[in-house]
Automatic annotation (TrEMBL):
It is found in: Mitochondrion inner membrane; Mitochondrion membrane. This is NADH-ubiquinone oxidoreductase chain 4L. It catalyses: a ubiquinone + NADH + 5 H(+)(in) = a ubiquinol + NAD(+) + 4 H(+)(out). InterPro entries: NADH_UbQ_OxRdtase_chain4L/K (IPR001133), NUOK/Mnh_C1-like (IPR039428). It comes from the Eukaryota. Keywords: Electron transport, Membrane, Mitochondrion, Mitochondrion inner membrane, NAD, Respiratory chain, Translocase, Transmembrane, Transmembrane helix, Transport, Ubiquinone. It comes from Anguilla reinhardtii (Speckled longfin eel).
Amino acid sequence: MTPVHFSFTLAFTLGFSGLAFHRKHLLSALLCLEAMMLSLYIAMALWSFQTESTMFSSSPMMLLAFSACEASAGLALLVATSRTHGTDHLMNLNLLQC
């Protein structure tokens, strides 16, 4: 495994572990998701550049577009929950109390 591949794998793993273990605030969960998507985007861009295939050249841009949509939906949920509940703690969010 080259150092470049190791660094992207490590970045994805750190983002995933941050998402799994530090689930106190919604904003930190969104930041971990964005870190995971950024590492996936860079890895896909380098992969399509290394293979020199025109078939996969649009894949990183599609992933980036979906990542932007995910980020906007996450921020909209963050604003909505902070307005209704007054905080962004994940422990206060319970679907059974709606």
